[in-house]
Amino acid sequence: MNQPEHIPVLLDETLKVLDAGRPGLYIDGTIGLGGHSSILLARNPEAALVGLDLDEAAIKIAQEHLAPFGDRVTLYHSDYRNLPELDIDFKAVRGVLIDMGMSSFQLDTPERGFSHQADGPLDMRMDGRNKTTAARILQKESEAKLAQIFRDYGELKQAHKLARAIASARRVQALESTTQLRLIVENVCHWIPQKGKIHPASKVFQALRIEVNDELSNLGEFLETILDLLSPGARLAVIAFHSLEDRIIKHTFLRLAKPETGVPLIEILTRHPAVPSAEEIGRNPRSRSAKLRGAVRV
Ligand SMILES: C[S@@+](CC[C@H](N)C(=O)[O-])C[C@H]1O[C@@H](n2cnc3c(N)ncnc32)[C@H](O)[C@@H]1O
């Protein structure tokens, strides 16, 4: 059977930010299918790697992809925000990569419910151990809370209207499928497909995914904690796929590079974030919203 694929985004730029040719230990906090990490390990025979992912299915595939690297690789089924609690010699770490969001493997598996383009259950959990699914949120949360989720995490103009439509639809029938939700969004937003226009359900699905997986909580605190644990010279590369994440990363980096104490923790390596070239977007359209920021511990 063919293995699922995920094309790593901003690959060369990321390895450059990590200065990944140096011997030593690297951490991939979102290993996915092992795209970035397999290339890092192949190009640098003196690198070892610790990889984490919330998605057990992804970890299993990464395990197979990375099997040729033998005991140079250690994988954990874990949230990267738990990294500081793992038994790792952080002082020996050379670089940490966080490539946020979803993999193509997750997006292209209809049973996971991440895509409005295929019919599936409204699940959206990255970690199967999580009890909260998108269906549960749509069923249980108040109209006001739903509106807040759509506004804050989807930046949706019709957030209140959509929340009202969902509250009224669920009184008749529970919302259980991606198609049911897509149809409600299309109705509320008076959607008419147009070339180059993004489907409004993309924002709604993004908002629910962020809420289900609690994606933004403690992100800034995590970045600060991990940078603090690293030795001078160690690098952090973070790839974000929407402005909410990117804003947190940008402000955290600025705060740590220019703290009120006057003693910086990091130097920022990317004054402007690296973004994919037209060539990369042509080859991998899903890379189009990626932004890479890098910092080095001082
Ligand atoms: C864009 S993919 C990573 C792809 C990977 N760089 C590659 O090239 O194969 C993002 C991955 O991060 C995982 N993920 C998202 N949030 C996470 C978190 N808080 N902790 C650990 N993994 C997470 C997802 O399950 C997904 O597999």
Which descriptors apply to this entry?
298 residues; alpha/beta; Rossmann fold; 2 domains; 7-stranded mixed sheet; globular; binds S-adenosylmethionine
User: Would you identify the CATH architecture of the largest domain?
Assistant: 3-Layer(aba) Sandwich
Number of strands: 7
| CATH topology annotation of the largest domain | Rossmann fold
Q: What is the CA-based Rg, rounded?
A: 20 Å
List low-pLDDT spans. none
Characterize the quaternary organization of these chains: single chain
Structural class based on helices, strands and sheet pairing: alpha/beta
What is the residue-mean pLDDT, rounded to a whole number?
A: 96
**Strand sequence of the main sheet, in spatial order?**
3-2-1-4-5-7-6
Ligands and ions found: S-adenosylmethionine
Strand fraction equals 5-15%
CATH superfamily of the largest domain: Vaccinia Virus protein VP39
Task: Give the helices and strands as they follow along the chain.
Answer: HEHEHEEHHHHHHHEHEHE
Distance from first to last alpha carbon: 47 Å
CATH class of the largest domain: Alpha Beta
- DSSP helix count? 12
The outline comes out as globular
Largest sheet: 7 strands, mixed
Number of domains: 2
**Helical residue percent?**
40-55%
